[in-house]
């Protein structure tokens, strides 16, 4: 499988105490294990099953995903910016594969 592409829309700066909106999308087929290929063989289940956002070593958002999520899942969430730091976005796939990206946030 090709390594998924992760896209993130997040501000680079925010006022202290303000609400920050994060949008992230990962390109992933989210195979449910219910479809068949051209030869009639079942395509094994392979989904993103967990998403985490860690901000300065503190988890600010967590989501558990299941088969009903569409391909290329988009996740949008908010949190309150209290200090400058690093956002780490972490996607966990069936089979143990993990995809990660980071963004910096400067709090004024």
Summary?
This protein has 108 residues and is mostly beta strands. It has strands at 6-9, 13-14, 19-26, 48-55, 58-64, 74-80, 85-93, 98-107. The protein has one domain: Sandwich (Immunoglobulin-like).
Task: Please give a structural write-up.
The structure is a single chain. The protein is 0% helix and 51% strand. It has 108 residues and is mainly beta. The protein has one domain: Sandwich (Immunoglobulin-like). Strands 2-8-7-4-5 form a five-stranded mixed beta sheet, with no helix packed on it. A three-stranded antiparallel beta sheet has the order 1-3-6, with no helix packed on it. Strand 7 and strand 8 form a beta hairpin. It starts with 5 loop residues before the first strand and ends with a strand.
Give keywords.
Immunoglobulin-like; mainly beta; 108 residues; 3-stranded antiparallel β-sheet
Topology:
Layout: E1 6-9, E2 13-14, E3 19-26, E4 48-55, E5 58-64, E6 74-80, E7 85-93, E8 98-107
Parallel strand pairs: 2-8
Antiparallel strand pairs: 1-3, 3-6, 4-5, 4-7, 7-8
Percent of residues in beta strands?
over 45%
- What is the CATH C-level name? Mainly Beta
- Poorly predicted residue ranges: none
- Can you tell me the CATH topology? Immunoglobulin-like
Strand segment count? 8
Domain Sulphur oxidation protein SoxZ: 9-102
Protein name: Thiosulfate oxidation carrier complex protein SoxZ
InterPro entries: Ig-like_fold (IPR013783), Ig_E-set (IPR014756), SoxZ (IPR030995), SoxZ_dom (IPR014880)
